[in-house]
């Protein structure tokens, strides 16, 4: 929670936000007012729901075919014409990371760093940068960037199988496919290129448990970190299934993950902000899956707030304003564990309005912690890819009690199916 010192330091400051974001980011436009700041929002959509909630709105199409440098120059010019002086600049979108970082640099503001934001936007570039550095090369597995179909055989020869093909840009497992042989690889690339473009990275498949590491950095110093454990995904899918916070790993293993994630952040040049790193813990230590030079989305901000009483949104704004967070090492007060509901399995149930009403009622009564991640089921599905529609979580003390409570709730709502083995997804917790 915000302290009086932090509130006074932020009071009256103006932050430029690039991009309104999606359904998961809607809380931002109400919560920011608690921090005493003003927000100037830049977005192409002049009908977005945040317009009435921010201090100022600038309609500007940063998606047009210009360079980020040109867009930054145009946005700064508009700000000057309107007589707006900004004290910080952030984005909550991967695609806008480089643009926000350029504005930070041109305006001498605190931020992730221009080069780092560009590197983090492209998965293959991230791996290429980190595997050349002594501090981080041990976290990188074999990978190969592909720009055309003619790169397929070279990529396959270098990486081998099993492997994972993923778009250079993207999140939530969209377009990520497991590769088992060359023929399937060619067909998969051609199909996915129709949706995601030609730029992909082929990456060695990593065995191990999956974890999300959230880090607050100020001037490259690690201020705080939070580790989430994720359950195994379904066969041939990479959509999230289950998660828990704090991590179930040993203290040493958690520290190993955090150290690796911090080294990767420093390795690509990240400086100030709240960042998300996804890794797998293997028999050979942590291995990098991907990095995001922005605050995590979905329910993670709320989970950290529940478990640690630390608001990642607050520290996103604070660091961009050049205010060093002062905090003792966060200690969790609760365990939270959740299961994701996905359209491919739960569509019939989720299509009924009374189902969502039931979840909201259970949330109000404190039975579950309900997070709806998309505005509609239709938004969750696109060309064979999907993201979770919602997360159903429970809060308790300790892993065992929390897991038992979650399984009781899951049985209560009647979402059990043979194709969605919840006990399997919770097996590492």
Task: Give structural notes.
With 429 residues, the chain is α+β, with helices and mostly antiparallel strands. Helices cover 36% and strands 23% of the residues. It has 16 helices and 18 strands. It has helices at residues 4-10, 28-31, 68-81, 97-106, 114-121, 123-130, 152-159, 182-196, 251-268, 300-308, 312-320, 343-350, 353-364, 377-380, 399-413, 422-425; strands spanning 14-18, 38-43, 56-59, 88-91, 143-146, 163-167, 177-179, 200-204, 209-218, 221-230, 242-245, 273-282, 285-292, 335-341, 369-372, 381-382, 385-386, 390-396. It has an 8-stranded antiparallel sheet with strand order 13-12-9-10-11-14-18-15, sandwiched between helices. Strands 3-2-1-4 form a 4-stranded parallel sheet. A 4-stranded antiparallel sheet has the order 5-8-6-7, sandwiched between helices. A hairpin with a 2-residue loop joins strand 16 (381-382) and strand 17 (385-386).
Q: Compute the separation of the termini in Å.
A: 28 Å
Question: Strand order across the biggest sheet?
Answer: 13-12-9-10-11-14-18-15
Helix content: 25-40%
Largest sheet: 8 strands, antiparallel
């Amino acid at each position: 929670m915000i302290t009086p010192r932090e509130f006074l330091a932020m009071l009256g400051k103006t932050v430029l936000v690039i991009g309104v974001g999606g359904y998961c980011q809607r809380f931002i436009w109400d919560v920011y007012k608690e921090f005493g700041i003003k927000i100037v929002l830049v977005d192409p959509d002049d009908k977005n729901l945040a317009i009435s909630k921010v201090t100022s709105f600038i309609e500007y199409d940063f998606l047009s075919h210009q360079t980020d440098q040109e867009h930054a120059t145009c946005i700064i010019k508009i700000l000057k014409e309107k007589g707006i002086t900004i004290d910080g600049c952030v984005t909550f979108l991967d695609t806008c990371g480089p643009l926000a970082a350029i504005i930070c640099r041109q305006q001498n503001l605190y931020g992730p760093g221009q080069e780092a934001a560009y590197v983090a936007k492209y998965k293959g570039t991230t791996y290429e940068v980190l595997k050349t550095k002594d501090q981080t090369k041990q976290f990188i597995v074999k990978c190969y960037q592909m720009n055309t179909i003619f790169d397929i055989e070279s990529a396959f020869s270098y990486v081998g199988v099993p492997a994972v093909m993923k778009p250079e840009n993207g999140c939530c497992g969209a377009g990520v496919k497991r590769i088992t042989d060359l023929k399937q690889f060619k067909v998969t690339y051609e199909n996915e290129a129709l949706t995601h473009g030609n730029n992909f990275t082929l990456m060695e498949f990593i065995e191990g448990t999956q974890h999300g590491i959230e880090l607050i950095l100020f001037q490259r110093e690690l201020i705080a970190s939070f580790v989430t454990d994720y359950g195994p995904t379904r066969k041939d899918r990479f959509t999230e299934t289950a998660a828990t916070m704090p991590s179930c790993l040993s203290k040493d293993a958690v520290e190993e993950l955090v150290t690796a994630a911090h080294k990767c952040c420093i390795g690509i040049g990240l400086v100030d902000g709240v960042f998300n790193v996804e890794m797998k813990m293997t028999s050979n230590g942590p291995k990098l899956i991907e990095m995001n030079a922005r605050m995590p989305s979905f329910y993670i901000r709320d989970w950290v707030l529940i478990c640690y009483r630390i608001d990642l949104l607050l520290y996103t704004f604070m660091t961009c304003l050049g205010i060093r967070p002062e905090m003792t090492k966060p200690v969790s007060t609760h365990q939270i564990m959740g299961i994701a509901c996905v359209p491919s399995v739960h569509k019939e149930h989720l299509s009924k309005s009374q189902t969502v009403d039931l979840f909201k009622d259970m949330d109000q009564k404190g039975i579950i912690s309900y997070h709806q991640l998309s505005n509609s089921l239709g938004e969750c599905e696109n060309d064979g890819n999907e993201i979770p529609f919602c997360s159903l979580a429970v809060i308790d003390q300790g892993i065992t009690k929390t897991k038992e409570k979650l399984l009781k709730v899951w049985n209560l709502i009647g979402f059990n199916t043979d194709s969605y083995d919840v006990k399997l997804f919770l097996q590492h917790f």
